[in-house]
Design brief:
The complex is a heterodimer.
Chain A: H1 11-20, H2 23-36, H3 46-59, H4 62-69, H5 76-84, H6 88-91, H7 100-109, H8 111-124, H9 128-133, H10 141-151, E1 158-160, E2 170-172, H11 183-194, H12 197-207
Antiparallel strand pairs in A: 1-2
Chain B: H1 4-7, E1 14-21, E2 34-41, H2 50-58, E3 73-78, E4 82-85, E5 91-94, E6 99-104
Antiparallel strand pairs in B: 1-2, 3-6, 4-5
Classes of the chains: A mainly alpha, B mainly beta.
């Protein structure tokens, strides 16, 4: 769906343009970038960065915010831009990767994170029925995308793990190393992000969707 | 018969938009992101003050001093920051890039 052959196809760049031409989106995007990009990685204020990311997704029309986050990419340049959307050096990555069950405990101590994570499991959960049909609970892609976006700006902030255009992996910043006898439970938890066909299809359906306006 | 000059539409000083890429700003950033650059343009002849008229008439007596006796269409305030991702995937923020209001000053 890149029709202009005079320049490299980059739907994420097109989405950025659409955002920059919209007053609210431009303001809110500049606000979180400015907050999240302050100082070197160690110096960035993660709490403030998370807060401005939540505000961005609360206040900006999904047409624009989802456009930036779920753009469908034909190449790495586009996918790297997509990965950078949430300023991962501040909002996502940390020096050490905590254990995922540890991270989940931290998340559950915070009422907002706790409820957003519950939403994610409810709306993007792969039950055996869904695994067969490759779809989402109630076939509701929108609900899963909204629940995914809801996690951005919490301790459980998920992101693209690399700049692979189509076969991308999504995960929170954690691993299952050092799970001891809870290894299986940890893997199950992590798989809900990494190997979630409902989430993947929801993202791809948005990227190729016909129900949203084409960026100007 | 009207002259060419008379036909020319004179728009008063106002805020205009231009879509430019980050590279086209020529501020030293390389980026393909498109941003909205807002600038001031237009005539200010309607807003000449007594100051300007007098200054114009006493100009000869001021012996080549640099003076401006016409109001100028300029930003009276600027938009807050604009942030973008450059082509090396680094984020930057530019302050006071675009005008948000124009005036004849």
């Amino acid at each position: 769906h890149c029709l202009d052959s005079t320049r490299p196809c980059n739907p994420c760049l097109d989405a950025t343009k659409a955002c920059n031409l919209n007053e609210t989106c431009r303001r809110q995007r500049s606000a979180y970038i400015d907050t999240c990009n302050k100082g070197p990685q160690d110096g960035c204020n993660r709490k403030r960065c998370h807060k401005s990311l939540r505000q961005f997704f609360d206040r900006v029309q999904t047409e624009h915010s989802y456009g930036l986050l779920f753009c469908s990419c034909p190449n790495n340049a586009c996918a790297e831009r997509r990965r950078q959307t949430i300023v991962p050096s501040c909002s996502f990555e940390e020096k050490a990767k905590p254990n995922c069950l540890e991270l989940r405990r931290t998340c559950r101590l915070d009422p907002l994170c706790r409820s957003r994570l519950a939403d994610f499991h409810k709306n993007c959960q792969m039950t055996p029925v869904q695994q067969l049909s490759n779809s989402c609970p109630n076939e509701d892609y929108q609900a899963c995308l909204a629940a995914y976006v809801g996690l951005i700006g919490t301790d459980m902030t998920p992101n693209y793990m690399d700049s692979t255009p189509t076969n991308f992996t999504i995960s929170p910043w954690c691993s299952c190393r050092g799970s001891g006898n809870q290894e299986e439970e940890c893997e199950r938890f992590l798989q809900d992000f990494r190997e979630n066909t409902c989430l993947r299809n929801a993202i791809q359906a948005f990227g190729y969707g016909t129900d949203r306006p084409k960026p100007a | 018969k009207r002259t060419k000059r008379a036909r020319k539409v004179t728009t008063p000083c106002s805020l205009l938009n231009l879509e430019v890429t980050v590279s086209q700003l020529e501020l030293g950033y390389e980026g393909d992101e498109t941003v909205l650059f807002r600038y001031c343009s237009g005539k200010c002849s309607a807003s000449r003050r007594n100051y300007d008229i007098t200054l114009a008439s006493v100009k000869k007596r001021l012996q080549g001093k640099k003076i401006r006796h016409n109001p100028c269409c300029r930003p009276t305030s600027y938009e807050e920051d604009i942030s973008f991702l450059d082509n090396n995937y680094k984020y930057h923020t530019i302050k006071e890039l675009s005008a948000s209001q124009c005036g004849c000053v």
